[in-house]
Write a structure and sequence with these properties.
Blueprint: H1 6-22, H2 30-67
Helix pairs in contact: 1-2
Length: about 70
């Protein structure tokens, strides 16, 4: 399993905790609040990794053309 990005994990935990403490989503059950924040975290994690993969691909292409 890939290592989790600690900054994103801390942001997720902070916002989930604040939302539960301040009573955001009183009309919905806590499971829905947690599920929504998990979806947000996973989307940010996916986008960050996709961007990193794209940057690494560009660097590899530049290195391979430089050696020729």
């Amino acid at each position: 399993m890939p290592q989790l990005d600690i900054d994103l994990l801390e942001d997720f935990i902070y916002f989930a905790f604040v939302a539960l403490i301040l009573g955001f989503g009183d009309g919905e059950i806590e499971e829905n609040v947690i599920r929504r924040h998990i979806d947000k975290y996973l989307a940010e994690y996916y986008i960050n990794n996709l961007t990193l993969l794209h940057v690494n691909t560009l660097l590899i292409n530049k290195i391979s053309t430089f050696r020729l």
